[in-house]
């Protein structure tokens, strides 16, 4: 960066798909990053195959032999609690000839039987039945090599289960860095513990996965895109504001917005639409939290909303309610999304009902925010077709320069700037490196 500033050059990162100019204080992303099949494949190879990926929460499979199937980075997996109570993840692919072994979405099963030749595996992955086994030489040795293939790494932080396909990935806590404590702040919110609810929101978006990351780290769009919601909150007496709200680069591509003026939080920050009964309950809850965790920690957890992004596929929304969201890129212009509600185990039914209603009114697929957001990133994906192949200046580049001047002075990043996006893109660029000469488009006269 220093060299770039001294020489007045544009820093084009590792692969030529970002252009960062510390003289002009501009930051741009080449739109091939959202469109190119080659970039998509390079992401699968270099990011998804070599990072920790969020798989699910251990409370999704509370009982022995509970399982879910799930796809990460295009790989079908079985997420299962074995008969021994241990949480594991296996490639959902038969060691015999590769068939998908478990074709149900979820359930409870002591065994998984492959339908093709009926090889059977127990819920701990062990090959338990092999029809016609007399035709195999050295049978015991052979059987010992044919258990379900586990993922290379699995580790759990506060119930959040992460896996990696790379056996040499650094330890999970090292990867999570400061993001680990943000997840702990969520897990500590109830003395009774926190759990996911069984229902799931699942939807497909016609947009690149990175647009979903940008959108979540983009406080700038909140007031214009969600003006219906902002108007509704103001009408109900909540003073929505963008003041005093910040974006934090947590390192390793993780980032976080800390928000105080966008919404109340059930049990933490009361707002009028929660009703009078909830006001008193919130006061008591905050008192109990301070007693349990100490005033400082209770305030740290309770006083602000947070939107956390853990590179590359986990978004955690600690807003009116708590939502875990997982991104699964399917194609350059297609992303599958799964979302779960994360709630206190021991919560009064009326509070739980209000939590779910409040959540769906905002981040639900029929709420006042998420459909707007999805429309925004689908509109970006459609719009960027217009400048494809246009090599004039920066016509085919997206701009994320907002707040670069503050950043260059080392000032704290505001949530309404684009610093959290820039830190994501810098890490993405570093992880991806050079894709090919074809994707590193030429700059036109605009950056000379
Ligand atoms: S492919 Fe599964 S038993 Fe043959
Ligand atoms: Fe939004």
From TrEMBL:
Domain Rieske: 53-163
GO MF term set: 2 iron, 2 sulfur cluster binding; dioxygenase activity; iron ion binding; monooxygenase activity; oxidoreductase activity, acting on paired donors, with incorporation or reduction of molecular oxygen
Location of the region described as Disordered in the Swiss-Prot/TrEMBL record: 391-414
Keyword Plastid: no
Segments of skewed composition (Basic and acidic residues): 402-414
Signal peptide interval: none
Entry coiled-coil feature ranges: none
Swiss-Prot/TrEMBL keywords: 2Fe-2S, Dioxygenase, Iron, Iron-sulfur, Metal-binding, NAD, Oxidoreductase
Family matches, as CDD domains: Rieske_RO_Alpha_N
UniProt key word Iron-sulfur: yes
Family: Belongs to the bacterial ring-hydroxylating dioxygenase alpha subunit family.
Identification of the protein by name: Ring-hydroxylating dioxygenase, large terminal subunit
The organism's taxonomic lineage, starting at the top: Bacteria, Bacillati, Actinomycetota, Actinomycetes, Cryptosporangiales
């Amino acid at each position: 960066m220093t060299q770039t500033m001294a020489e007045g050059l544009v820093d084009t990162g590792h692969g030529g798909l970002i252009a960062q100019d510390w003289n002009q204080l501009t930051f741009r992303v080449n739109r091939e990053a959202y469109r190119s099949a080659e970039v998509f494949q390079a992401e699968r190879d270099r990011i998804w195959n070599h990072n920790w990926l969020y798989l699910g929460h251990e409370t999704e499979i509370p009982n022995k032999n509970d399982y879910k199937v799930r796809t990460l980075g295009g790989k079908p997996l079985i997420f299962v609690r074995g008969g021994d109570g241990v949480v594991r993840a296996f490639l959902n692919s038969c060691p015999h000839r590769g068939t998908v072994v478990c074709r149900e979405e979820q359930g409870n099963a002591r065994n998984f039987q492959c339908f093709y030749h009926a090889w059977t595996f127990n819920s701990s992955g062990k090959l338990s039945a092999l029809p016609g086994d007399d035709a195999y030489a050295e049978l015991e040795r052979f059987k010992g090599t044919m258990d379900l293939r586990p993922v290379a790494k699995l580790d759990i932080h506060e119930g959040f289960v992460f896996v990696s396909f790379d056996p040499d990935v650094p330890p999970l806590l090292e990867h999570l860095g400061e993001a680990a404590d943000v997840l702990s702040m969520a897990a500590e919110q109830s003395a009774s513990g926190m759990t996911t609810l069984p229902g799931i929101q699942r939807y497909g978006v016609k947009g690149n996965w990175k647009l979903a990351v940008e959108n979540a780290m983009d406080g700038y769009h909140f007031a214009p895109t969600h003006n219906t919601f902002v108007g509704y909150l103001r009408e109900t007496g909540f003073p929505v504001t963008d003041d005093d709200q910040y974006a934090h680069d947590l390192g390793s591509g993780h980032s976080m917005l800390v928000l105080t003026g966008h919404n109340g939080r059930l049990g933490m920050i009361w707002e009028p639409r929660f009703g009078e009964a909830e006001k008193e309950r919130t006061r008591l809850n905050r008192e109990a939290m301070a007693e349990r965790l100490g005033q400082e920690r209770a305030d740290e957890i309770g006083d602000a909303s947070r939107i956390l992004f853990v590179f590359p596929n986990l978004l955690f929304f600690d807003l009116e309610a708590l939502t875990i969201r997982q991104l699964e890129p399917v194609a350059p212009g297609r992303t599958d999304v799964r979302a779960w509600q994360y709630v206190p185990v021991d919560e009064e039914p009326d509070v739980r009902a209000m939590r779910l209603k409040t959540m769906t009114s905002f981040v639900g697929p029929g709420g006042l925010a998420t459909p707007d957001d999805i429309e925004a990133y689908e509109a970006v994906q459609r719009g960027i077709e217009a400048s494809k192949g246009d090599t004039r200046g920066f016509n085919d580049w997206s701009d994320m320069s907002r707040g670069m001047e503050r950043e260059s002075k080392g000032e704290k990043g505001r949530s309404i700037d684009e610093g959290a996006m820039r830190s994501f893109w810098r890490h993405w660029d570093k992880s991806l490196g050079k894709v090919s000469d074809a994707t590193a488009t030429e700059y036109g006269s605009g950056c000379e």
